[in-house]
Amino acid sequence: MKILDLLHRWAGGVLGLVLAILGLTGALLVHKDAWVWAPGAGDALVRDPDALADAVERIVSDPQRPDSIIFASDSFGLHRLRTGDGTGAYTDQTGAIVAQWQSIWDRPELWLFDLHHYLLAGDVGETFIGIVALVGLFFITSGLIMWWKLRRTFQFKLWPARLTRPSIIRHHRDIGVVLAPVLFLSCLTGAMLTLRPVADLVLRPLGPASEWRAATAPPLLKGGPLPDRPDWQGLFSAARAQFPDADFRVLSIPRQPGGLISLRLKQPGEWLPNGRTLVWFDPTDGRLIEARDALTMPAGQQAFMKVYPLHAAKVGGLPYRLVMTIAGLGMAMLGTLAVWTFWFRRPKKPAPITGTVNP
């Protein structure tokens, strides 16, 4: 038990601040659609395929053609363009640009997401965050084991009674137990999203990873050159014929010769905010190459598609968003106080005994 306590304290002292950053940024990002501002952000969603095709025609006619377009949704009324190298724009649902950025630092929602998902360090940061999420699972498990011996002293308090080391440690132990289930879910889903082997291991009972990951891999076919004016109305009409009840979510436009136009849709039964129903087209003539229904994909892929919505509170409405907000703020508090008590409120060593000892 002493070794477990030592590992728990040292890991918290070293990585607590990272967990605090992840918790605070996560709590903010859960409500991103409510606080991101640009003209038209609150507009109602237009579901007419012809209107969407006209907007896309207007967007891609710009010399700086985007790589992808994330379409407006019920909670956010603007299309988001990605033009590469950190640049992008928001347009209203007619395709008119209402905001642009040249780097992630121009928009708070962009650098907050990068901080939360990559620690502003790209792929290396993503891997590090996945490792921190695994350490978070260790914190929760070891904390529960150590709490069990002292469970009769449990007291629920949102904040330590005093900012002394014993009071903070007691509060840390008790509030950690209260938050343990949702923190476990947050850390597990975070690790699954950032570390592929973790997702493969957790979902292994549902089938081999190679099988369910292949369900979303693009077709092994090459497309022709992209014309100056693709038939967007024909593409959206063909996709709507395949999935009549689905919403259009993401359009990806090939930059390199041989690439396919891909369209992601969201059907009523899907949890992912951008869906995982996929349709591919030949850029040259708009011919439909392949369509895949997310609702009929292998069980492993079905389960993996629920990981991000659970982590980012994209299901369950406002009540679940509030639960994940509490989890994020709780993680921020626990991580910050752990670092503070470990480095700045360490117990003082007893003063050495001086003087002469009488024989």
Describe this protein's structure:
Helix content is 49%, strand content 11%. The protein is built from twelve helices and eight strands. The chain has helices spanning 2-29, 32-35, 49-60, 108-118, 122-149, 165-194, 196-202, 209-213, 232-242, 299-304, 307-311, 317-344; strands at 68-70, 79-84, 87-91, 97-101, 247-252, 261-266, 277-281, 288-292. Helix 1 crosses helix 12 (317-344) and helix 5 (122-149) crosses helix 6. The model has no long low-confidence stretch (mean pLDDT 90).
SSE layout:
Elements: H1 2-29, H2 32-35, H3 49-60, E1 68-70, E2 79-84, E3 87-91, E4 97-101, H4 108-118, H5 122-149, H6 165-194, H7 196-202, H8 209-213, H9 232-242, E5 247-252, E6 261-266, E7 277-281, E8 288-292, H10 299-304, H11 307-311, H12 317-344
Antiparallel strand pairs: 1-2, 1-5, 2-3, 3-4, 5-6, 6-7, 7-8
Helix pairs in contact: 1-4, 1-5, 1-12, 3-9, 5-6, 6-7, 6-12
